[in-house]
Amino acid sequence: MITEENKYISFSFMTEAEEGRGEDAPPLLIAKGNSCSVGVFDGMGGAGAKISDSSSVGVGHTQAYISSRIVCSSMDIFLQNHLPTDDVKVEDMKAVIKRKLLEEKEMFAPKVASSLRSKLVKEYPTTMAVVTLQEYDKSCKVDCYWAGDSHCYLWTKDGFFQISRDDLENNNDPMENLHNDSPVSNCICADRDFTIHHNPIKLKKEPLIILCATDGCFGYYQTPMHFEYVLKSCLQKAKNKEEWKQMVRDEVLKVTGDDCSLSLIARGFSTFDDLKKEMKSTSSEIIEVMKQEQEVAEAEHILAEEKKRYEQKIASGWNSYKQNYMKYLKDKENGNA
């Protein structure tokens, strides 16, 4: 059980754009002594839209829906057995995933072979983003594992950091990809080889947060800075972790047009108030962007009100002006021409 008493503060959520058909899996959240892990898995509905007759997770689901849940379950079992992270090897992780997907494919083979043939179509495609944390006496190690475009983050008192790099056909940076969405170049699937990337990060032992999110959480904001602002501003407003979770979820749902899932563990904070105090700082860039955004919103409101008054003035002016403007047309209509 993860509690504030043992200095883990955690939450996760998953929402569906269409109830019962969400292709994000319920998030991964594990804590074992000095080790913990978070993860998210986004079934890729475009590439894996084919509906399976039957599956290990139910009937009538897309292969994307099935894959995200199989990979999540596989990683849950794998990490439960392999934490601490010194024992986690990427090749072992990949082998487990491939085996489970192939078992699914063989056990629930379609009765009629699909006629779809395209490099965009994949069998059981999903993204994966997993972060593990291992604490030692005076240091800690954060390991980031991913395939696709779901994100891994590290959050310390020094800042908020994306620690996974999107697998994209175009070499967009995170900001560019929000406005010029690139096709994913690598994802977990059953019919092709794939790569699980690994980014190990060594840090001094300090309070920190590990976080994973699918693109439904961050992909509908103007900038990556907006997503950070939501997390931080909701934290400062919340009285406890349940309020924080609900506020973040509500803010994401205001903008997202997709399934979304997020998993977060804060480690090294004695209480929720301690967490709020330690993670209070916000970068000057975000402050300036949000200030300017507020000014733009106020200007747009004023402009909307002025446009409304302008339209009203046009209507009243025309009603008065047309009496003389249409004088002879009215006479003609009345038979006085």
Gist?
It contains 9 helices and 10 strands. The protein has 337 residues and is α+β, with helices and mostly antiparallel strands.
Walkthrough of the structure:
The protein is globular. Strands 1-10-9-6-7 form a 5-stranded antiparallel beta sheet. The chain is an alpha+beta fold. Helices cover 39% and strands 20% of the residues.
- Which descriptor suits the 3D outline? globular
- Work out the oligomeric state of the chains in this entry: single chain
Total of helices? 9
Mean pLDDT: 90
Q: How widely separated are the two ends?
A: 92 Å
* Estimated structural class: alpha+beta
Number of strands: 10
* Share in β-strands: 15-25%
Percentage of residues in helical conformation:
25-40%
Highlighted features:
337 residues, alpha+beta, 5-stranded antiparallel beta sheet, 10 strands, 20% strand, disordered N terminus
Topology:
Elements: E1 8-15, E2 28-32, E3 35-40, H1 63-82, H2 90-107, E4 128-135, E5 139-147, E6 151-156, E7 159-162, H3 174-179, E8 197-204, E9 208-213, H4 215-218, H5 224-237, H6 241-255, E10 260-267, H7 272-278, H8 284-325, H9 327-333
Antiparallel strand pairs: 1-10, 2-3, 3-4, 4-5, 5-8, 6-7, 6-9, 9-10
Helix pairs in contact: 1-2, 5-6, 5-8
